[in-house]
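Hi R.,

Here's the chain you asked about this morning:
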Amino acid sequence: MSARTTTSRTTTPRTTTPRTTTGRFTFADWQEEPIGAADSTPRLARSTVVNAFAGGIEAAATDAGYTITYTGEGTGSYTGLELLSGAVDGRAGAFVLEQRGTFDADGTRCTFEVVAGSGSGELAGLSGSGAFTYRHGDTSVAYEFCYTVA
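And here is the predicted structure, written out as tokens:
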């Protein structure tokens, strides 16, 4: 008769039912430089940004890069990628968000989506999307994020 040894492993349960989490983020650093002529319209710029997320998403200092199109004075659109290292509702790991937004005199509206396959750690298999609206003068920005972890 042979004895079989089993090892118990603790794993974070997967979330296949969509969950929605909320919180706020602040931007700590915004560095922008023109691409081409800085005094024409339309014009392009690129920026690097550091954000800090709190709430459902916890990430003390993200790394983000954006390409911005200015279509008028203070109006335009942007696309970008942001690497978040931290946790989502207590699950530790990292992932990348792809973002698309528009801006005008009132503020910024953005939608974002997790880049497929970018989740690591307890966030491996993460998928989801969300949005935020920033109003000029706000010191932090509310976000909403709906996600699953397969």
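One quick note: The longest strand covers residues 15-35.

Cheers,
M.
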